[in-house]
Amino acid sequence: METLGQAVNLFKCCIFTLNAFTIVLPAFLVAGALVVFVPSYSVMKYFGARANRIISYGVAAVSGNVLTVCSCNVVPIFAGILRRGAGIGPAFCFVFAAPAIHIVNTVLTYQVIGYRLALWRFFAVPIIAVLVGSAMAFLFRREEAARQCEIENQRAVALLDHSPEQSRRAGVIFGMLVAVLIFGAWLPLDPYFPEGVGQFVRLGGVLLALAGLAGLALLWFGPEETREWGRQTWLLLRMILPIFIIAVIAIALIVNYIPLRWVMPTAADTGGLRFGHPQGNHLLPVFLGALFGTLMYFPMLTEVAFTKALLLKYFALGPALALLLGGPGLSLPGLILVGKIAGWKKTLTYWAVMVALITIVAYIFGSTFGAYECSCQLQGAVRPPHEAGLFSALGLAWFAGLVLWIGITAALARRARSEVEPVRETS
Question: Are 295 and 332 in contact (CB under 8 A)?
């Protein structure tokens, strides 16, 4: 490989693939459901400016363990919670933490790279997210106070009554959508099917589940609310998707002309900046690693393989952790989208604070642990094949249970509605 584009081919892995559809569409539907089905007081209870800070920042920081999103499809959900009254601090805490840490990339980091980087990544992400959210809330406290007053003074458009039954139904719909989002992004499932079949399994599962959820929304909430769900989803798609596609294509074209030696020079190289151990653990190489990670777009999980390749070329631990923290949590397309939603002043401040925090954490890590020890030396080069099969079987069983749950719930909702309608006609 001679260019960065050959190492991370964005055209093949995230633009013109079915994976883009199964990962992105459920995220927009989740965001649309937030606006229509989830009452604003529910969002403000956990993420609002007056919410308990331990609860709001705690929920935002660990949300990535539930969701499986990348730095771009987290943006519509970020827009949804902001529109429902979330405070700027928890919102920015969420937009970094959700794509940067979830169970899939934690396990993959442990298996491919090693336990030290996996553990530091797992614990550093929520800490950094809380710090950046707190910094954003403090720096923009006056603007945020004015925005919260405006939210409280105007009654949000609510198509649903807030009865306990409707709230329960909204929670079920939203929970099922999150489950579909996780399944649509479950890329590790694909290698355990014949070549090319895995993505169609996920596509069919996502479409089947979404069709069932649309039918369930019609039964529970009626056609008007279901149409509004589609309308809100379309508004977000129209606002975000064109910018996302143009930005990712631009990056994909640019990286095709970036020589790989610019990104991964090693300690053996003569002249120039060295990223190998021990020179690479100095502050400047770590900062440049964080800067590169926040501007480069890494499709989901590809940052793990890319960082592993760098480490095998004697890349230092400090810049490696900076890439693992900044790569999925931030990206140039994601920053552009956040800027369109929250404003460029807030976005640039968020980016600067995030790069600074990532640099500090990665520098401490690199200075503490020094040279890299390959995971194959620590865990054994051969892993039991039944682990991967069991992992995939559990994922499929879980999603099959989800689809069955949707079907049973829809049947019960239809039965309950048929029993209620004759009573309404009599009355």
Answer: yes
Pair of tokens at residue 262:
């610019």
Domain boundaries, the chain: 4-426
pLDDT in tens, 230-243: 888 888 788 777 77
What angle do helix axes 385-426 and 197-221 make, rounded to 10 degrees?
20
What type of residue is 176? Answer: M
Distances (CA, A) of 104 to 2, 70, 130, 189, 298: 30, 12, 22, 11, 15
d(CA 330, CA 97): 10
| H helices present in 185-222, as ranges | 197-221
> Encoding tokens for residue 14?
């995230």
Q: Which two tokens stand for residue 70?
A: 């990348």
| pTM of the predicted protein model | 0.70
Residue with tokens 């993420």: 47
**Taking the mean position of all CA atoms in its chain, how far away is CA 108?**
16
Which residue, among 295, 369, 290, has the nearest Cα to 324 in the 3D structure?
290
DSSP 3-state of 276: strand
Query: With b meaning 16 or more CB within 10 Å and e meaning fewer, what string describes 265-281?
Result: bbeeeeeeebbbbeebb
